[in-house]
Amino acid sequence: MPYTKYLPERMGSARLTPGGPFVAGSHQELTLTYTAGDFGIDDTGMLKISWRTTSDMSKPQFDQPQAANYTTVEASNDARLEVWFDRLNIRPYANTLLIRVGRGYLRAGDTLTVRFGDRRQGSPGYRLQTNVEAQVELKTAVDAFATYEFCELPVQPAFDLVAGPAVRWNRSCRHLPSSASRSGSRWSPKMSGAIPRQGPAKL
Question: Between 144 and 186, whose confidence is greater?
Answer without folding.
Answer: 144
